[in-house]
Amino acid sequence: MAETKLYGNKLIPSLSSLPSSTTLRRHVAPFPSLVSFNTPKPPRLRVLSMAIKRSPKRLKYSAPRFTKEGGMLYVEVDELGADTWKLEPVIELLKQGAVGVIPTDTVYAIVCDSKSNSAIERLRRIKNIEPSKPLSILCCSLRDIDTYTTGFPSGDGQGHADIFRAVKHCLPGPYTFILTASKELPKQCVRYGTKTAKYASRKKVGVRMPDDAICQAILEKINAPLISTSVRSPKENEWMVDPVVIADIYGPEGLDFIVDGGVRVADPSTVVDMTGSYPKITRLGKGPKLHWMVAEDDDESAFYVEDLMPSATS
């Protein structure tokens, strides 16, 4: 694997060539747009060809551009998580209120620390999300879900099926579950059932536990949920799955870092609303429809609680 990258006319070492103890610092002058490292200069440097496996029409995106003042950190990580030590500077940036892009088991996501109100507001500005629009949270464990939501519905004889056992079988996985938010979740993340807060009866939030080694490593290291929104093209409104293209489009908008886990497939998560009488699929994506889920075009009157109740082997 090559050990250097070429940005402009300067050679800098790749993160993959540095030991885990290497510290990062940012140039102030004379090259404020570069990220540099406190490490001895190698005796010889080799240039990595950035155009490998790129289609000709996208060669202009072959090298992420560091146009943001102070630089933008770009980290390439093995998609199977074999070198997650490279994520340490990303974790530090997140704790300091940074906004960046990470891979999930579906598409790439723009994320920030759930405890940083200023980071949440900046994430909305970067993605151009209205304050009334909901944001999702990425969780590392079911315990996090219990903390930041009221949990999954349990059997109560009023039409709610006890599906917690079934949910455990599909998490981590490519599902977003809409749940009722708890008071622990920042107000910037939730949406109201009506436009007027005075008459809002519930606050809802989308919850994800991605089955992705890189994403799970970040969540484990930061030990807290991340606010998340999927990366779409600002103009075409299509999923963006190539991290170097994301860097080119969203880098100038104010991203602090990008974690490159390879090109993904444009297949978003399946969204399941758990706040109604039945678990209803509002968007069918990568996650398959399970027997205890109701599709939007299904006739709900044909279902009974017993039909949706997961068995011990589900």
Automatic annotation (TrEMBL):
<feature type="domain" description="YrdC-like">
    <location>
        <begin position="84"/>
        <end position="287"/>
    </location>
</feature>
<dbReference type="GO" id="GO:0003725">
    <property type="term" value="F:double-stranded RNA binding"/>
</dbReference>
<dbReference type="Pfam" id="PF01300">
    <property type="entry name" value="Sua5_yciO_yrdC"/>
</dbReference>
<dbReference type="InterPro" id="IPR017945">
    <property type="entry name" value="DHBP_synth_RibB-like_a/b_dom"/>
</dbReference>
<protein>
    <recommendedName>
        <fullName>Threonylcarbamoyl-AMP synthase</fullName>
    </recommendedName>
</protein>
<dbReference type="InterPro" id="IPR006070">
    <property type="entry name" value="Sua5-like_dom"/>
</dbReference>
<dbReference type="InterPro" id="IPR052532">
    <property type="entry name" value="SUA5_domain"/>
</dbReference>
